[in-house]
User: Fold these one by one.
Assistant:
Number 1:
Amino acid sequence: MRSLPLLLLLYSILLVVPTACIDPADNPLRSTTALIVVDGTITNLPEPQIIKLNQSKADRLTGQFSTVALTKASVSVVVDSSEVVACHETIDGSYQLPSDFRGKVGHAYQLRFTLADGTKYVSTQQVMQPVAPITKTSAQFNPNSLSVQQLDGYTAAHDIFIDSQDPADQHNYYRWTWQLWERQFWCHSCRQGVYSYYKILPNTYRGRDYFVTGTEPFNDCFSPPAGKAGEEAPDVPKKDWIYDYQCQSPCWQIINGYDILVLDDQSINGGNLTRQRVAQIPFYDSQPGLVDIRQLSLTADAFRYFKRFEEQTQHSGGLADTPPTALGGNVHRSDNHQVSVVGYFSASAVSLVHYWLDRKDVQGISYGATGRVDTIQSTSSYGKSGDELFYAFHSRQPNPEPSPPYLGERASPYVKLWPFNDRPPLTPCVLTDNQTPFKPAGWRD
């Protein structure tokens, strides 16, 4: 299941407020109204079907929005107005349908949820429409694909194109999304500390240089206060540092596309979609990656919502322009249909392609030529260790903890642990929304 990225939804909150609250033209950026954000799409693929619920509220003074997950809600999906399928909360604010649940073309789906305070919400029904298959996928390197403002100076990307045969006997609405998988080689960072597999024994030191570890599992950063904890304790420097630790097993970074791209087939009904650009994959990393391209079907109402969203988030002239109208979705309070929420609950059939992006067509551009300039390390020193991708997300090179022996002119860590036979340690690849230890379908070793 893939849904409208939360980042885009929150960006829209900066521009819109519920229609029942205030006129967005009066004060579009400083509303302190708490906004419910719904993010969820039922698909027909064998994948987790997840509904995300969040609440966003602007600070009264700054107008900046902060977001918290809505926990302990009662969430369900009603199928064909009769079957009620309950969701269970997996992590805060994420509600998953049973693992064997799949959407089916032609069936109707409706979201219902009750928040912890008893407020009830319901969506309009969404009938899953069929989708034409993607018949061809190709990529072309474009050093100027992205604007300088989009990704902090990274302008180079691979433009992804698809072909598809549009059915002639029906009115179709399309939406395209993408997801990039890159090998990640650095799995943990410790600020003003070091990573330890085991808990550090209290008030136990070795030679006034080392903190001593026990046998109880810890697997986290040990960051002692600056200074000396006692006469025999090591002296922890009063400075700022970060040590980065490599992964102990294969790990993949997950990068989501945030652009909204939709199409009404009225101009091509029954014709071919040829070289339709559906993605711009940033050139962060010279190593191969995997791109999941999805072609989704939309209802007419869902198309209008996403089209309006596209126009407001991607073609806005800026804050000096007249703010757009309120962008309420298809979810509203059960006792007051005038109070809608941000986001859209939809049901979409999906044509999915796993596209291997080998990046062999990149010519004449080395890492850093189209992105931020690294003043610490020259581009010639980047290798296959994942430093390119790390730098793209952290704006710095990885800084490994120095390895023993700590003798002579060899650097030693600011915090040293005993025993040191496993220094620096490798760290686990933790499963998150942006990282996974599980090899994605279609990945080539």
Note: The two ends are 25 Å apart (CA to CA).
Number 2:
Amino acid sequence: MKSTSSIGIDKHETVNKRLKPLMIISAISCSIILLWILFAGKVDPYIEASLTKQGSIDKGSRLFRMNCVGCHGISAQGLVGPELSKVTSQLTDERIINQVVKGLTPPMPSFEMESQSMADLLAYLHSLNQG
């Protein structure tokens, strides 16, 4: 027997009309979460190569003096650019690499460098945080 309201509307039909948008939103949300899970774990090959290499603090220091002191200061105290002496405790190595190679925050330029040079620069930045 069909359940109807006092005005003759099928109660199941009303419930289905209300649930349909929620089901669509749920399906879209699940799809977005699934895509995020699939693609979030992918590591950029350049970042991976930079992180797997052993960096040299001395070479990183030279790179820093040649490319970074004009904006970040000779002792990474900050000038036009921010202070970097504790940057490795504030940002992940992946975020630091992205910042350097993509220049994400103006006026920071982007720098092209070999993954070994990036490993050297990271080693130097880590040494600043220890001092």
Note: The longest helix spans residues 11-40.
Number 3:
Amino acid sequence: MINETPPDPPQASTDSGTGSAYRPDTPDIIAGVLAAAPSRRVRAVGDLYRLLLDERRTSPATTSAALAVARLLEDPRTLAEDRWRRGSGRRSLRAELLDWLASFADIARLEADAGAGAGTGAEAARDPLTAAHTARRVLHDRVAAFCEDPDPQVREAALATVALLLADPALASYAPRYAPAVRTVLAVSADSYYRWIARERLTAWGEDDGAPGGEDRKQPTGHPGGTAAPEHRARPAPARPAPGAPVPEPPVAAPGSEPGYRGPWRIAREEERAEWTFTPYGGVGPLHFGMTLTEVAGALGERPAGSLAAHHGEVRRLDHADFPGHGIRALFRNDRLGCVAVDALTGPQVRLYAAPLTGCTPSHVENWLVHRTTPRPGSLMRTPTADPVFAELGLALRPQRAGDLVLTRPLFLLPDWLDLWHRLPGAERSLF
């Protein structure tokens, strides 16, 4: 039985005044999932997703959480409904937990495809990926019971989880049993992520995926998973359709944010910002995708104030570099520029059709863009926190706080960066 009143967490610590808050351990998260207070349950679900985001791989913590979550599924308290994630509708906790297990299964699948976790004997027993593979068989047994649940949201989430778990070779023999339901339920779901899972798994099983004209071949960004990378080349901006929404308002300076003000929430006035345009999948302002750090610094005329390199296997690669004088973060893969994040408060004003994208009200920019991009499957995707990603433009809109204001922080991306869940380096991913 789970103790719903765990010990009080340690006092929140701060780091140089930044207010870095206490992050609960896995047992505290699991205890919170079935807490009596709805707000605590919602917070615990968010902590589960942050656990996956922080690790971005299978680990003892994520594997332990997955096994614990699977044990909770039969508890009647998981029938409680709420809005578990920003921008999502109401659904049962059971359906949400199954979606989280699908996220875990997808990460384990991707790691297996990459060839990780090949140890044997005692070494394999200590290997986190090997432990995750073993856990997948336990998870299958617990999740399979919900594949015929009368709640359609639970049924779809369970089928999606099982389909991803069957990527384990030890479970592959079950594929023919589930293929009909994957085809008739998941492949026609209203959720594009479930449709993508159906097509990807049916193809892997050698089954007809029934997809008309290649629909949903690319994985949406609203859930974790790999994204196929289209050819890297500049693409023309989409044709401008008839107006359907008001043009977003440019940033409004907060009181006291006149030039020279150095308060915590300084917002640059419109006349202070540089004016940039962008070419989808080509570049933004003076920056072009594929540049090195030296070339980026030269184009901006500014030395990076901070940069971070991370180990990728045995090679140390540059992850990102900040240029605060311009309000720009440059993000790299294989030491080449692949994403540009523009600070909502002080960054350049990047325009599309003369309309501002930087530092505006998020809903206004999103609504305006929705009316000006081609309505085709996969053209609008969502991050786990419901931020929009416009695949046609190579543009994502993330929120950035300034006191009580929330403003747009646009990210300009290459195609293989559209899956923000997996592709963003830790410094930028932590803003989810």
Note: The chain has a mean pLDDT of 75.
Number 4:
Amino acid sequence: MRRRTAHVLTATALTAAAFAGPVAGAVAAADLGMPGFAPGSAPGDFAPLEVWPKSAAPGATVTVNTTACGPGSRAEGDATTVGGGRFKLVPGTHKEVVVGQFQVAHDTRPGTYEIGATCANGKFATGDLVVTERGPQGHVKTGVGGGTTTTTDPAKIAAGAAVLAAAAVGGTWLLRRRASGTRS
């Protein structure tokens, strides 16, 4: 419930910033404790935050990047909505891109969550992450035992080959005997 409330409050603050102008938005953001909101930022200072992968299971590592911060800049990311906490975005290998990573908490429920970043230049970037169900993990318990092995035993391979060879020879002998009409 706390995550949903925080998400609603954040959306309310961002909407206030967009419609009421920079002063009202700064006051609303400061009241909600949104770190890094730069007083004097103009509405529309929001840029896209690319999230990869766009959907992830709990426990997955997610990478984000944006060009909103400018060349050589830095940013602080916020993935608290998925239990990833705050993280740093630093200059990446591409010009004007800052990159950061966080991990989705193991107890995060499926849904769409907003991830944000506050640039050192006062601009903001946001993107959505879709958290999916966690797939099955570990070994399948069928009650039959292991189906594969990573070790090979030359003695077992030789014994298996000998059994197959003996069966082939015996089968051939029986077919020839039946074809010739002899019974004893």
Note: The two ends are 85 Å apart (CA to CA).
